[in-house]
């Protein structure tokens, strides 16, 4: 049985970050005077943590079972790329607004996003 190990690992990463965000509710800082920062603050809410947890579980299951009907693996890679890109932008905005220094969370999120883009472009589809 072929498995997509990369998709499985990305799903586990997404699941763990979702669990972390559901337990640590004060990761995203808020500034009610800045509408962009106030909007991005909501990606730290528990609702978005459950989106990460759900997407992580689905990606892990799809990666382990090699389910690819209706190009489901491609759809999951696109969704993972979109959510990690959103979190990279949010962490970057938060870093610039609240201190100007780029935090490790921003760098790591960016690297995960880049690895998803590389897998989407050059990945072997589980081969």
Walk me through the structure:
There is one protein chain. It is elongated and about 50 Å long. It has one domain (5-121). With 127 residues, it is mainly alpha-helical. Helix content is 72%, strand content 0%. The chain has helices at 5-23, 35-41, 46-65, 72-97, 104-122.
Tell me the count of domains.
1
Beta content comes to: under 5%
In percent, how helical is the residue content?
over 70%
What ranges have pLDDT less than 50 throughout 5 or more consecutive residues?
Answer: none
Q: Give, in order, the helices and strands.
A: HHHHH
What is the structural class?
Answer: mainly alpha
- What's the main sheet like? none
Counted beta strands: 0
Distance between the termini: 10 Å
Task: Specify the number of helices.
Answer: 5
Characterize the overall form: elongated
Radius of gyration: 15 Å
Mean pLDDT: 88
Strand and helix layout:
Layout: H1 5-23, H2 35-41, H3 46-65, H4 72-97, H5 104-122
What can be said about this structure in brief?
The chain has 127 residues and is mainly α. It is built from five helices and no strands.
List keywords for this structure.
127 residues; mainly alpha; 72% helix; elongated
């Amino acid at each position: 049985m072929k498995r997509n190990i990369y998709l499985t690992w990305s799903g586990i990463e997404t699941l763990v970050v979702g669990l972390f965000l559901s337990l640590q509710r004060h990761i995203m800082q808020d500034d009610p005077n800045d509408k962009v920062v106030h909007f991005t603050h909501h990606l730290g809410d528990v609702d978005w943590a459950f989106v990460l947890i759900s997407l992580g579980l689905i990606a892990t299951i799809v990666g382990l079972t090699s389910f690819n009907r209706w190009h489901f693996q491609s759809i999951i890679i696109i969704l993972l790329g979109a959510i990690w890109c959103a979190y990279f932008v949010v962490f970057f905005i938060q870093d610039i607004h609240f201190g100007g220094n780029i935090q490790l969370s921003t760098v790591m999120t960016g690297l995960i996003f880049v690895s998803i883009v590389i897998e989407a472009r050059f990945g072997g589809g589980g081969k």
